[in-house]
C-alpha cells in the first residue's frame, strides 16, 4: 500500500539508506554514485494538481514511466484552468496537504503566492538533490528569474510560451492579401478577409476577462504602452487607449459571436475546424491546433506584427511548484525533477511543448521532428523571437496581479460590448487599479 511520509518522520533513516546504497552498490549508476536513488521514495504517493492544457497532457502521457522509475504513485487531479485555480486557492487557504505539486504561472500568481508563503523554496533541492545530468543551469535564466521572489525559487520551468498569430495561407492567397506587417494593418487585412470569406471569422483572440490580458498585453506593449507609470495605472495614456480601442474593435468587428467567453480552448477549436482565418493564440496551443492534420499544410505562424513601440511579445512559462504544506516535499521533488529533466524536456518538445532548456534544441530527435513539417520550423522561429524579445509583464506587476487582470479584461469587454467609451473604460479601470496598487 502506498504511503505519504511526513517531511520529518524517518528523514534521517532515509538519508542514511541512500548514502549506504551509494557506498556499497557495485553496479551503481552515475546518479547513485552521488547519493541519488530514484527508488528512495518507493511506496509514497504524490498528488499533482494539473491544468488541463497541452503541457500537462504531454507530461501525463509518460506517467507510467515515472511510476516505474521511482515506485511512487502519482495521484492526478486535472481541471480546466479556471477550475484548477479555484481548487488550488481552496486547498492553499486551508493549509491543506491534499496537494503536493501544482502547476503555476509565476507571471500571474507568483508574487501573490510567494507573499502568502504557499511555495516550497526549491533552491536547496536544485543544488543538493539532483541527478548528475540534471544541469539546472541549462534552464532558461529569464524564466528562473521570473519564478524567484525575494530569493525564493518557486517553480521549475516546464515550457516557454507566448501568443502567436496563426493564419490560413490558402485563404490569404484566395483573397489576395498578405500577412499584416504592423498592428495597424491587422484591421485592413481582417476587413478584406471578411469581405472575401463571409462564412469565416476574420480575426479571433481572447475575450474572456481573466484570460484576455495574455493576448492584449502584446498590443499594449507593441503600441508603446505600459500598465504602470510613476506608481500609477497607465491605461488612459494615449498608447493605452489606442491599444484598448484596437483590440476591442478587432474583436467587435471581426471576431466570433460570443467572443467575451473565448479563451484558448474555444480559439483552438474554431481555428482547427477551419472557421477562422486569423487566430492570435498561445504558442502552447500548436499541437492542439495541428491535431488531426487538417491545418498542417495551410497554416502560417508569426509573432504579432510590431507597432509604434516595436515588438515586445508576451513570453512566459508554466512551472512546477511544491506546496509549502506538502507532507512529503522530498518525494514531490522527485516528480518535479523527472518532469523537468533534459530527457523529459526532449520528449515534451516533440509533442510541441517549446522547451525551456537550451540543450534540447540540439537534441537529435527534436531536430528531426522539426524537419518533418515546415510549419514546425515556422513555429520554432516564432518561439525564438519570443525568447529573444519577450516580456513577462502580463497584467500589473503587483501582488494582486490576478485581480488586476479582471479589471483589464473588464475595460476591453465594456468597449467591445458598447457599454462604455474608451475614455470611460480606461478611467474606471485606472481608478480601480490604482486602489489595488496602493495596497502593496
From TrEMBL:
GO terms for cellular component: periplasmic space. Belongs to the bacterial solute-binding protein 1 family. Keywords: Cell membrane, Lipoprotein, Membrane, Palmitate, Periplasm, Signal. Residues 1-30 form the signal peptide. The keyword Cell membrane applies. This is Sugar ABC transporter substrate-binding protein. It is found in: Periplasm. It comes from Pararhizobium mangrovi. The lineage of its organism: Bacteria, Pseudomonadati, Pseudomonadota, Alphaproteobacteria, Hyphomicrobiales. InterPro entries: Bact_solute-bd_prot1 (IPR050490), SBP (IPR006059). Transmembrane segments: none annotated.
Amino acid at each position: 500500500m502506498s504511503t505519504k511520509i511526513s517531511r520529518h518522520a524517518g528523514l534521517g533513516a532515509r538519508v542514511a539508506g541512500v548514502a549506504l546504497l551509494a557506498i556499497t552498490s557495485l553496479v551503481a549508476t552515475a546518479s547513485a554514485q552521488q547519493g541519488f536513488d530514484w527508488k528512495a521514495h518507493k511506496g509514497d504517493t504524490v498528488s499533482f494538481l494539473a491544468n488541463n492544457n497541452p503541457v500537462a497532457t504531454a507530461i501525463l502521457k509518460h506517467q507510467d514511466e515515472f511510476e516505474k522509475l521511482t515506485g511512487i504513485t502519482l495521484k492526478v487531479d486535472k481541471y480546466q484552468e479556471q477550475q484548477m485555480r479555484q481548487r488550488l486557492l481552496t486547498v492553499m487557504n486551508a493549509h491543506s496537504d491534499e496537494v503536493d505539486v501544482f502547476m503555476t504561472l509565476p507571471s500571474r500568481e507568483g508574487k501573490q503566492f510567494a507573499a502568502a508563503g504557499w511555495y516550497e523554496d526549491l533552491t536547496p533541492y536544485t543544488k543538493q538533490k539532483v541527478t548528475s545530468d540534471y544541469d539546472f543551469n541549462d534552464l532558461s535564466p529569464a524564466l528562473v528569474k521570473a519564478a524567484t521572489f525575494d530569493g525564493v525559487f518557486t517553480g521549475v520551468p516546464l515550457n516557454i510560451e507566448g501568443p502567436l498569430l496563426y493564419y490560413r495561407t490558402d485563404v490569404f492567397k484566395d483573397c489576395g492579401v498578405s500577412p499584416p506587417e504592423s498592428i495597424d494593418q491587422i484591421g485592413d487585412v481582417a476587413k478584406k478577409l471578411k469581405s472575401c470569406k463571409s462564412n469565416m471569422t476574420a480575426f479571433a483572440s481572447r475575450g474572456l476577462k481573466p484570460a484576455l490580458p495574455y493576448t492584449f498585453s502584446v498590443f499594449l506593449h507593441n503600441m508603446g504602452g505600459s500598465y504602470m507609470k510613476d506608481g500609477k495605472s497607465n491605461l488612459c495614456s494615449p498608447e493605452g487607449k489606442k491599444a484598448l480601442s484596437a483590440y476591442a474593435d478587432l474583436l467587435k468587428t471581426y471576431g466570433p459571436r460570443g467572443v467575451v467567453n473565448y479563451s484558448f480552448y474555444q480559439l483552438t477549436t474554431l481555428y482547427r475546424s477551419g472557421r477562422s482565418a486569423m487566430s492570435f493564440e498561445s504558442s502552447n496551443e500548436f499541437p492542439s491546433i495541428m491535431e488531426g492534420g487538417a491545418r498542417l499544410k495551410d497554416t502560417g505562424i508569426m509573432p504579432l506584427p510590431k507597432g509604434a513601440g516595436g515588438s515586445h511579445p508576451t513570453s512566459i512559462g508554466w512551472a512546477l511548484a511544491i506546496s509549502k504544506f506538502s507532507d512529503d516535499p522530498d518525494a514531490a521533488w522527485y516528480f518535479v525533477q523527472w518532469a523537468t529533466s533534459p530527457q523529459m524536456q526532449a520528449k515534451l518538445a516533440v509533442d510541441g511543448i517549446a522547451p525551456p532548456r537550451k540543450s534540447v534544441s540540439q537534441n537529435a530527435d527534436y531536430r528531426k521532428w522539426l524537419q518533418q513539417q515546415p510549419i514546425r520550423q515556422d513555429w520554432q522561429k516564432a518561439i525564438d523571437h519570443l525568447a529573444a524579445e519577450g516580456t513577462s509583464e502580463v497584467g500589473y506587476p503587483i501582488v494582486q496581479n490576478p485581480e488586476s487582470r479582471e479589471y483589464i479584461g473588464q475595460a476591453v469587454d465594456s468597449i467591445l460590448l458598447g457599454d462604455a467609451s474608451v475614455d470611460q473604460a480606461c478611467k474606471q479601470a485606472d481608478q480601480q487599479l490604482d486602489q489595488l496598487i496602493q495596497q502593496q
